[in-house]
From TrEMBL:
Lineage of origin: Bacteria, Bacillati, Actinomycetota, Actinomycetes, Micrococcales
Cellular component GO terms held in the UniProt record: cytosol
Reactions mediated catalytically: 2 H2O2 = O2 + 2 H2O
GO molecular function: catalase activity; heme binding; metal ion binding
GO biological process, one term: hydrogen peroxide catabolic process
Secretion signal, residue range per the UniProt entry: none
Family that this chain belongs to: Belongs to the catalase family. HPII subfamily.
Organism: Phycicoccus elongatus Lp2
Keyword tRNA processing: no
InterPro entries listed in its UniProt record: Catalase, Catalase_AS, Catalase_clade2, Catalase_clade2_helical, Catalase_core, Catalase_haem_BS, Catalase_immune_responsive, Catalase_large_C
Coiled-coil ranges (or none): none
Comp. bias (Basic and acidic residues): 27-39
Protein name: Catalase
Location of region: Disordered: 1-67, 429-455
Superkingdom of origin: Bacteria
Amino acid sequence: MPPKSKPDKPTQATPSTSSTPGTQRTKATDRRGNADELHQGAARGGPVMTTAQGAPLADDQNSLRIGDRGPTALEDFVLREKIFHFDHERIPERVVHARGYGAHGYLETLEAIPELTRAAIFQRRGIRTEAFVRFSTVAGNLGSPDLARDVRGFAVKLYTPEGNWDIVGNNIPVFFIQDAMKFPDLVHSVKEEQDRGWPQAASAHDTFWDFISLMPEATHMVLWTMSDRAIPRSLRFMEGFGVHTFRFVNASGEATFVKFHWKPRQGMQSVVWDEAVKINGADPDFHRRDLWNAIQAGDFPQWDLAVQVFDDEFADSFDFDVLDPTKLIPEEVLPVRVIARLTLDRVVENVFSETEQAAFCTQNIVPGVDFSNDPLLQGRNFSYLDTQLKRLGSTNFTQLPVNAPRCPVAHFQRDGHMQMSLQSGRANYEPNSFTGDQRGPRPDLDGGFRSAQVPENGDKRRIRAESFADHYSQARQFFRSQTPVEQEHITDAFVFELGKCEIPAIRTRMLANLRNVDESLASAVADGLGMPLPSASPAAVAPREDLPASPALSMLDGRATTFAGRKLGILVTDGTDPQVLDAVTTAFENGGATVELIGPAIGGVKLGRRGGRRAVDHALDGAPSVLFDAVALLPSAGGAAELAQRKSAKDFVNDAFAHHKFIGVGSAASDLLAAAGVEADDGMVAVGDSDDAAAFLELCQALRHWARDVQP
Ligand code: HDE
């Protein structure tokens, strides 16, 4: 029975004056206007909510009804407008890189390089250029988990005084394919299989490995995606790469080749696979939360923009074709040169308006930058512009605040869906005699964009250059440049991924390809799969043995590490010693780390030694140790005995141990360690009193205790 309505007065909802629900901005610079007006309106007792047309609302709770319990009137424009807009809230997600997270910041030029490029932002040291960066995974849908094994997109939009320059890169310096023609095939193979609709955000399935095993050119990149680079601990702790060879062009029109690198000043760090799987369950938003938290806490992530610059002579003498995006130039062969620093210092205000509507286009370059003939890059230059129209629905997407250049724009592109600018004047064509000085492009050499003058000729053919034919040598070089720990992780990843392939022939074909990379890798993967090793697949060019290891390709080899920017989780209970707790907290916070407390329940704990109550950040059941970079176990004796009975507490310790984390062990934690079946090793340090905190922090600076021998 429907409840009887009250006979007298229908309820009138009074909108709260503290909310400003209709606040909207149309210009990036219009940061406060509307909100202030609404607040002032509210203060004057005026309306706080309006329709999209601006009509003040008296009731946002109830639709317009005929009688108390009667039908809704079609006349209810308030309801219709609200539902109409809601019905159309979603736009198509990106066909790849759907899951992403963005932040604002700036690029500061550290070195003027006018001899290389005439780009305005590199003419003087100290120039600051506004930037927007969007990180992403590739294969997963918008709602997929952050810790999928995948490449990460690293797309940077620089709002320069000469227009927007987008460096749409990845966290891996090479790509799966050499020609844009194969991109739809690659993406189809990795996305959910079309007849069943799974798996989501995973390359561990038949169609992906079918395609990869049939495309030897993908081998180099899959070595990278099977490495820990594909499961970064944080978006802040990964490198970025422009991948393709681009060109710099100076004021005299002289061109050089250039490759772009982003070097994280926070250092590099990844998680292990078992940890990634568990993070995806415990916090699918792990990466976006981490970035948001860091920026909100004022711990602004930074990357150095570094370049590898080279001329035709180097390109001709280099072992591989610099136009082949499945190849890199080792830093030991051609060192990187730092020219600028990127800082991310502001989170977005609205994820849809900014991150979702951000439209990166590889074709967005500025005077002083140009493309090379890399066939993948050339194809991308079509795809990105095209895809924005599909996704954002109008050629006028460049007018959205996140996409709008910060410099003046002047052109005769007119009309189109959602034209936001008032295109005044009589003439909308060029040349014309109405617009005076602004009548056309700048004729002078210094001002306007000019393509690098490069002679081109040749027969028109569909062909893959011979110089692109070596598919295995750099894959081998990458594998051999990894530390044993990293090699083991790569092997485990291949075993896991190929183990998910149902069709044995696909696994066999991949093993045959891996024999061309490294015999020890191929046989370890075959062992892991419990399959015989097939003969090596025929290679178009025999893989080279003579490429020297490149330590720069490893994440662990000789890299300086720090615990700054990382997170310590401290397990506390009633009775925890406040002095030790405070000493550890202070030491880590002074070292630039974040400290979070985990208690048996979210209500907090009552510390020992008259320490009083202490709030905790997490309840144990919701905060597995995978969410932290290191853990400290500081329960009281009674607390430890109770935790020893709880599976979540034993898992907390077990996982921290299994994931090679450093563990600070309080004087009363032994019951818990014993219950978890964990034995002390060099990766554990006693934190029995306050003096131990510094030693614990020092240990944690190595990030992981790789020497710990644990089975995956
Ligand atoms: Fe992309 N890629 N891509 N890609 N890509 C897109 O553009 C494409 C490639 C990369 O945060 C799409 O706006 C083709 C290489 C990033 O918004 C689409 C080819 C690299 C992002 C597209 C490639 C990338 C994208 C999907 C081969 C690293 C996310 C939605 C010829 C250097 C940007 C969109 C963001 C997004 C096409 C290959 C990086 C469809 C055709 C190589 C970081 O246009």
